[in-house]
Structures are given as structure tokens and as C-alpha cells.
Design a protein that fits this description.
With 201 residues, the protein is mainly alpha-helical. It has helices at 5-19, 30-36, 38-51, 55-66, 75-80, 99-109, 119-137, 144-159, 167-197. It has a domain at 21-68 and 118-196. Helix content is 65%, strand content 0%.
Length: 201
């Protein structure tokens, strides 16, 4: 019996690693992202139907916020720990949602069991927050640059233009805008290929 223990331990480790959510290796290619994570495509489509926000925007914001890491935390906090005298950020998961904002989302949508490390919940959160940006800050849902600024600064901050003197944040928003356009173009090609070959998603 004992001689089987190493093999049993290896089998359990492989099973657990298969269940773990790993960031996609090709984060710049929407087709490869979704080929490796086929359930994500259905989640992106549901969010698009529910909130009117394109899959490209959803992917671009998650890429910027967490690089598609389900258990991501703020980079500075990961590297340095909590700085004495400062408050640790509660940002977590694919969308890097804060505790208070996530609680607001769950109350507002009735999605009480939502988890920040579940992709479908994270993209639904991005869609919901973008819809709030449309309502509270009058941002169009096809304007990823300003959607990201409001996502980062909050609606009150965006309306007060707190981003105006943050060149690094404006660069990040431009990156989200560029990624959105690329992802949506790639996904249009994926959809055509899918209809012909049914190889994707």
C-alpha cells in the first residue's frame, strides 16, 4: 500500500492543478484566451446581452486589472505588504473589485453568491459597473477610455476629473481602449471561423 502513496499524491496534485484557474498564456489574443477557457465565451456573451457592453471591453478591463488572474491582489501590496500607517486595499480577483463596491453589486443585482474569483461573476460586475458609469457619469458603453477612468476613480472621482493630473492612469485607459479594439476585432474573426469550423468556444 505504501508504495502507491507517491503516485496517489501525484494524482491528487494533478487534479488540483487542473481545477485551479490559471491566467491565459496568450493574453493579447482573444481567440486563444477563449479557446483555452471555453466557458468564458458564454459568460462574455451573457454580460453583453444583459448590460450592452462588448466582450472586448470586458476582456480589456480584466487584462488591465488582473492579467486574468482569478486571485490577483494589488501589485504593490503583494510586493511590499501593507505599508505602516496605510490601509490595505481590499481589491481582489479578476476585476480587482473593492469589498464595498462588490457588496453594492451583489445587493443591486441580487447576485448574493457572486465571487470575485469566478470569471462569470467578474465580467458581470464589469458590465454592471459600466452601466452605472453610463447612468451616473454619462459615459457611452462604447467608450472604453472613459469607462476605465470611471472604473478606476469611481463615479464621484470621475465626475470631479480626479484623473486629470494622473498621466499614468490616462496611459492605462489608452491601453484599455487599444486592447478593446483589438479584442473585438479578433472576436469578430473568431466568430466567423467558429461558424465555418466549430473549432472555437
Amino acid at each position: 500500500m505504501l508504495r502507491w502513496l507517491p503516485f496517489l499524491a501525484l494524482a491528487i496534485a494533478l487534479a488540483l492543478s487542473g481545477c485551479a484557474s490559471r491566467p491565459p498564456a496568450q493574453a493579447h489574443d482573444a481567440c486563444l484566451i477563449l479557446e483555452d477557457n471555453r466557458s468564458w465565451w458564454r459568460a462574455l456573451q451573457r454580460t453583453e446581452r444583459r448590460w450592452g457592453i462588448s466582450p472586448g471591453v470586458q476582456l480589456a478591463i480584466l487584462k488591465r486589472e488582473s492579467s486574468f488572474n482569478a486571485r490577483a491582489r494589488p501589485a504593490r501590496q503583494r510586493l511590499l505588504g501593507v505599508i505602516p500607517g496605510s490601509r490595505p486595499s481590499s481589491a481582489y480577483g479578476y476585476a480587482q473589485a473593492l469589498d464595498g463596491t462588490w457588496d453594492w453589486y451583489k445587493r443591486d443585482t441580487g447576485n448574493r453568491r457572486a465571487r470575485r474569483d469566478r470569471f462569470a461573476d467578474a465580467v458581470d460586475f464589469v458590465g454592471w459597473y459600466s452601466d452605472k458609469s453610463r447612468q451616473l457619469s454619462r459615459i457611452r458603453l462604447d467608450d472604453p477610455y472613459n469607462l476605465y477612468l470611471a472604473y478606476h476613480e469611481g463615479h464621484t472621482g470621475f465626475n470631479r476629473r480626479t484623473y486629470a493630473n494622473k498621466a499614468w492612469l490616462q496611459r492605462a485607459a489608452r491601453e484599455v481602449e487599444t486592447d478593446t479594439r483589438r479584442y473585438d476585432q479578433q472576436l469578430a474573426g473568431c466568430r466567423r471561423l467558429q461558424r465555418r469550423s466549430r473549432l472555437f468556444f
